[in-house]
Amino acid sequence: MLSFHLPLPFGRLAGVGFVSLVAVFCTCPQAAHSQDLTIRTLSAGQSKKVCQLTGERDWSTGAPNSAQTQQSGLTGTDLGYPVEHNGQLALFFGDTRSTGENPLRNEIGPPDDAVGWITSRMPPTVERCTDLRLNTERADSSRLVFPTITTAGRTNPASLPIKHGLFNVPSGGVSSDGSLYAFFWTDHCKEEKSCPESETLNSVGRGVLARSSDRGVTFVDAVPMPRGFVYTTAANAVRSLETNISGDRRLGIFVFGVPTYRASGPYLAYAPPGQMGDPSAWAFFVGLRPDGKPSWTSYEVWQRGQGGQWKPPGHPELLSASDADQCVGEHSVTWNHALDVWLLLYNCGPPSSAKIVARIAATPWGPWSGPKIILDAERDGSWCKLLFRHGDGACLGRTDDWKESKESQNGTFYAPFVIERFTTPEPSTLPSMREATIHWLVSTWNPYQVVVMQTRLRVHAVPIGVGSGGASEVDTRGRTP
Fold first, then answer.
1. Per-residue pLDDT for 478 more than 50?
2. What Cα–Cα distance (Å) separates residue 16 from each residue in 19, 20, 44, 46, 428?
3. What span, in angstroms and rounded, lies between the C-alpha atoms of 256 and 335?
4. Can you tell me whether residue 265 is helix, strand or coil?
5. In 10 A of CB 475, how many CB atoms?
6. pTM assigned to the model
7. Domains of the chain in sequence order
8. pLDDT value at position 241?
9. Bridge-partner residues for 21, per DSSP?
10. Exposure pattern of 372-411 as b/e (b: 16+ CB <10 Å)?
């Protein structure tokens, strides 16, 4: 076993079996009045492909996929952000290739995302991936229904509140108060070389929040996301009843967003119960106090920022300011009950060498551990097994999903999203050690599909001391305590 102590530079971690990261977390339970300093070590086994979630046939074996998404009109897609909603699992897919698609589509439209649903709670297998079903016009239809934001009396795509076309996608979502919420990344250019960099179409884009009451077919009540929350996800804290968060904070929602896609680190906001659709009622994390408690501020103060060009108040970055950590785009944050930690997954690095990274923390505001690479195409031998690579003899006979592109497109890993309902606790050898197998989605670009992966994780927690302090509190009125 290899062991690394923070701070850890981002880089390739070689080795077989479990690889460890060590971090010190401040655990502040609601009923306690002291800080419990705990060393928690994150280890990971080799990540393995379970099955291909989308497409008609498995790209590497040619075997039929159990979901048979092509029968619903979907031939290729990416993302698939999972949201637990009313006992089922919604998946928000990104730009979707479908039968009979419009060859003239661009950033503006027509809409081309997709929503699917999973009911099974049995972990996926090679033989039975999932029972994924996509939103279609009818149950027996092969015509996909693409989710769109609508307003009363406006159904023309040209008049929709946001752009739903290429490279304008749902980045995440959450369930709250009976509604299915989605974060949309919009006003983003397909190609930076020809991007006008205008207010309505630029290389950064903007975030929009909207809700659905019809299983993700249409979304209404769209509101702009706060500054800095351009590519956004969320975690419903009501599902984390044993986390190190005071009782009333377990009923709200934690919102994570990055200001610049794949070129920055995440910020954190807290939506009180019943306020998910109103960002002006949220509290915004602005840094840790010396005693380890989080500091929060109001929407008004956050939007005002500091300086002439907007900068967030305080020190809200959840990760370090080093260039190696400023790479978060697609990401997921989940409370892992089996491991007793918050788990962050994201892709980092240029497409030619992108890696999937994991971090853990005792609370959403951290401190977060150093990066642990759980999937690396070079290290893990993924070329021509999971990813297409031009000029690689091992890929002969494999389908090139971008053969019509003007430029050669190799595969890459991105959009790692944990499906918490499939997490499986594993036996451990020590009372202080927790182990679990997580199941997560990853997009592969070429092939243009979504794959289910599994990784066995181990967290070893050892208390090392007790100091003074108090329970962490969030001021729901938005003031900085």
1. no
2. 8, 11, 10, 7, 19
3. 13
4. coil
5. 15
6. 0.87
7. 48-458 (2.115.10)
8. 44
9. 4, 42
10. bbbbbbeebebbbebbbbeeeeebeebebbbeeeeeebbb
